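# nightly structure sweep
# worker-07 picked up a monomer target from the shared queue
# config: single-sequence mode, recycle default, output format = structure tokens
# input follows
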Amino acid sequence: MPTRSSPLAFMGKLLLVCLMVWQAPVWALTPEERGLEIARESERRDEGWGNFSAELMMVLRNRRGETSTRQIHSYTFEGVDDGDKSLLVFDSPADVRGTKFLTFAHKEGDDDQWLYLPALKRVKRISSANKGGAFMGSEFSYEDMTAPVLEKYSYRYIRDDDYKGRRVFVTERIPKDPHSLYSRQVVWTDQVHYIPWRVEYYNRRGDHLKTLTYHKYKRYLGRYWRPGRMVMTNHRNGKATALVWKHYRFRDPEITVRMFDPAKLTQLR
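# output follows
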């Protein structure tokens, strides 16, 4: 004769079935779906900050270890229906003072970038075909100066790993832009805060060209993480460029959308 299970045993089996059903979608994700999921969560956690300004020091180091420094003011305006707008204003040294670099990131189509050179007294638009060029002699390209937009890449989860004692997701993102300098980028993302710690950039031939590392993160407004230092190392020429950030100011009332008008770059102080 069939035996009756106790109510406790029945509830245990029911809980096990529910747990398996709840976890099944995670187990069923493909590497591409999992990679996209991680990228989406990173984006979701960094929404709603509005705008911020910061002081930025760019330190260029050649292969002999010699350095030169540039002082910059940075302004960023968060996009809602499209990508962010960013503006860099160079304060020193004298040969670059007054140079301004404006970027409009877009979810679809090419990003817009303009460079104002005071010596020429004109605004130069950066074409898509030239975004692989070095930005102001640094190891950052013009392409690197635009924050990654979720829709501009395809993704793939590679593995879980450790990075300097922190658990990270290692994922791959592949630019959809045919003019991109890169064939792929490998990203180390913190599993707790969903912030990047390391990005490896591979050129169109598949060679490891550059590595970007993030350091000295701080949290602002109780939610938004920003690095105190970023270092881009070029493995081909032995050079490196550091971006040292300080005095972040979120929801700065002095930042308005009018600041990000390419027609006014010649007038902006």
